[in-house]
Amino acid sequence: MLFSLASRNLWRNRRRTLLTLMAMVVSASLLILALGVFSGMFEDMLASATEQYHGHMVLAHPEYHKRRDLFATLSETIVDAGPLRETADMIGRSPRLRSFGLLSRGEQTQPAEVLGVRPDRERRVTALHESIIRGEYLKADDSHGIVIGEGLARKLELEPGSEVVFVTQAADGSIGNDLLYVRGIFATGDSRNDNRLVLAALPWLQKVLVLPGQIHEVAMAVKDPMQAEAVAAGLNQRLPSSALVLDWGELLPEMREVIASYDVSRMIVVVILYLATGLGILNTFFMSVMERTREFGILMAQGLRPWAVRRLVLLETLLMGGIALLIGVVLGALMTLFMATVGIDLSGYITPVTYAGGTILPRLHAVFALDNFTVPSLMLLVVSLAAGFFPANRAARLDPVAAIREE
Amino acid sequence: MKFTAVLILILCSLWAALPSPARTADLDLQTLIKDVEQQYRGRSSHAETVMRVKTAHWDRTLEMEAWSLDRAYYLIQILEPPKERGVATLKRDRQIWNYLPKVDRVIKVPPSMMGGSWMGSHITNDDLVKASHVDEDYTFALLEETDVFYLIECLPRENAAVVWGKIIYKIGKQPRVPLEIDYFDESMVRVRQIVFDKVQPVGDRVVPLRMTVLPLEKPNERTVFEYRNLEFGLDLEANFFSLRRLKQR
Predict the structure, then answer these.
(1) CA nearest A165 in B: which residue?
(2) What is the pLDDT of residues A186-214, one digit of tens each?
(3) CA distance A112 to chain B (A)
């Protein structure tokens, strides 16, 4: 009975209800869209921070984590050893050897970080193969090919096909050196990678460094980056003490902070936007309750208890919140879908920004995350109820006799 | 070669100390330096050297041939082991190039790598360059004189781009050869010592034929240079020390 009364009351002043409803729908759907874009930005950042270089987790000798000690190596066989192979949700495991040295062409010499990788394995962990702007990624059987960061290539005036010399200190004290051929040039947007990083073949680097069968680390990718910490903890229990897995949160502590701050900033945005919406709802219902003072008086005179009056008004606001939520979520989802599939390219206006080890790409791009729907939805209902509370209270406390006489 | 370099730099540095403000020790220093200079001045030199390097990670023995002219030019070429044969280092003034026969390229050592180890030894590229300019970068004082040796302290001049906080030379009186050189870092902690021994006559000179570099923070490590054939007063010109020569040798 109360429900049908409430729904009928809602449509008595159609224009006012629709306007309020519209405000609620717009704020809810825009909020969902904004949070989706927000999440997209963080996902870009986390992805760039992990998929450009570290992966989600890195296994290495503890001394290598600490000091990048050339001699703190592991056997390459650890890549396919039990603990790593048997971990569920592991997408890729890439063995790597790292060497800091000089890349030289003609008169130009630049410091470089060369990662010896197995290309078919590396591309399952990092996404550098997707950032190739000229030439192509390493092929599995290429012994002397490299892909090189765009900034480094520019400084050395390298193009795909160019020849370049790599010089470094080998593990036997000799000068490790060899000729390399540029196959491709990548641009990640992260200047630290683009100005320094070189990918080469693992067997080649093992030979140059005189570290046969040895690697410095295993970079790993998992299905859900947010689970990396738990997976790393599980691995560390099973691995010998000479091998330690760090997750991206430990490798990039600033990134972890950024992600953690997201939940807080999301709440702040939701609260601010809904505060405005809530005031609108509050206004609408105060108006509607005041207009109906006489009506409530009659209802109460006929025996409607005060709690029922309160419930009636609350039901009206809740109903409105429910409708707004339904439309808002659908609209928000549609807009998010558009931003997720099409997005907006801003590369003409801004350049990539690197922050906390992650790169914010010059684009607006949304992702779907359950929390971005549930948090605005639940909050909308809470706000509706809160905004309805005062008008409902006022209605419930009316004195029937005085109310009936009200003009 | 390195040995020759050190010898040359010692006399250069001592010589450079001469015109500095009058001190009580001036006369002694002057005499000392004159003696040392007369004994060691080789405008040019040629040497065959064995370098033995012992570190926690490698033991390596390199045989090499070296030429020097004044203090500005060195050319060092590795003869053994076969894997590294032909690898060569050229120093001209304050710059260093390495020649790598495997890739047939000459690579100039950039400033960022000057602190790096030279050929896996306890000598850095900086040592090759800066050591020969100690006279320009340091001031000198006689710390102690005994019947057997002189102790000379070198402190960096203001604004000098140097790696050491202090260097102390111990120079023997009879024969007049360096005995020890101690290197101190900026916090005046002794971090490296070079010891000279096997003093023998070479031509009309007397020189120590062995030089041992001891990194003091790594007590089990050392680099030993031993001279096999040492000649002074060769007929070398500056253009001998060219990038082209680096490749040809």
Answers:
(1) B103
(2) 888 778 888 999 999 999 999 999 989 88
(3) 11
